[in-house]
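User: Let's play a game. I give you a shape written as tokens, and you guess the letters that built it. Ready? Here's round one.
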């Protein structure tokens, strides 16, 4: 607190917000830098679709997400696995979930061969899981934010 200049020497009740603004700016920068690192799983260049259905369960740590960034490169979460290990790992992840929540998400890059994706889906089905979600990104409209 400061003293008033001139007058009767009364205390000033103004709050100095400069230190608070400095702290908030530092926190904002920290969160902006760390937020991209918090993405769960492996980054892949997803194919675009006009009508992808968002599923909030895909971002949970308990979700079974198989990522295929390149041909013959497979990840479950952040762990690199072989194609033969996928069914076993999926069973371990989904064993405690009820049947209605046993969904396996497959994220594949655009350049991955169709046969590789089909082989992964077949191995997931062989493990006994029929609820499989293919992940896509929403296609941006060419007309901009106003539409056409």
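Assistant: Ready! My guess for every position:
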């Amino acid at each position: 607190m400061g003293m008033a200049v001139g007058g009767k020497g009364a205390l000033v009740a103004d709050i100095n917000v400069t230190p608070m603004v400095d702290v908030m700016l530092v926190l904002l920068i920290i969160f902006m830098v760390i937020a991209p690192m918090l993405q769960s799983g492996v980054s892949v260049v997803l194919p675009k679709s006009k009508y992808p259905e968002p599923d909030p369960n895909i971002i949970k740590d308990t979700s079974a997400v198989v990522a295929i960034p390149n041909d013959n490169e497979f990840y479950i979460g952040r762990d690199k696995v072989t194609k033969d290990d996928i069914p076993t790992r999926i069973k371990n992840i989904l064993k405690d979930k009820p049947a209605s929540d046993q969904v396996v998400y497959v994220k594949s890059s655009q350049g991955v061969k169709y046969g590789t994706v089909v082989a992964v889906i077949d191995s997931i089905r062989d493990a006994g899981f029929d609820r499989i979600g293919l992940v896509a990104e929403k296609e941006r409209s060419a007309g901009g934010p106003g539409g056409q």
